[in-house]
Design brief:
It is built from six helices and three strands. The protein is of the alpha+beta class. A hairpin with a 3-residue loop joins strand 2 and strand 3 (89-94). Helix 1 (3-34) crosses helix 3 and helix 1 (3-34) crosses helix 6. The two termini are 14 Å apart.
């Protein structure tokens, strides 16, 4: 797998994540905090609306599959997240991690996430 393709997939995922955070994270944090949750389960489907096909990937699933091939499946753990597959992929995000993601500046966060993912 080419390094450029892997980097493009990482950037496409990060862009979708940042969009998701802008639109949903604060509400998710409030609800999870009120109910005493330590982590949240976020469906990959939640990122579909935020996925930009101009990244060269027609669907967010292609981005995830490419990242999995690029990093031998460990890219989710590099973010400090877990995952489960229940008819679709769900990311298990610790609430503290989600809180940090929402508090960070977008440009700094994007750079840090690329670094964490090894790109």
């Amino acid at each position: 797998m080419s390094g450029e393709l892997c980097r493009r997939a990482a950037q496409a995922f990060i862009d979708a994540l940042l969009c998701y955070l802008r639109s949903n994270a604060l509400r998710t944090l409030k609800i999870a905090s009120l109910t005493g949750q330590n982590e949240v389960k976020v469906s990959l489907r939640a990122f579909m609306r935020c996925h930009d096909t101009s990244s060269g990937f027609a669907r967010i699933e292609e981005v995830v599959n490419t990242l999995t091939r690029c990093s031998e499946g460990s890219w989710i753990q590099k973010l400090g997240w877990g995952h489960i597959f229940e008819e679709e992929l769900y990311f298990i995000i610790p609430l503290e991690s989600l809180k940090k993601l929402t508090e960070a500046e977008e440009k700094e966060l994007a750079s840090a996430l690329l670094r964490d993912l090894g790109f």
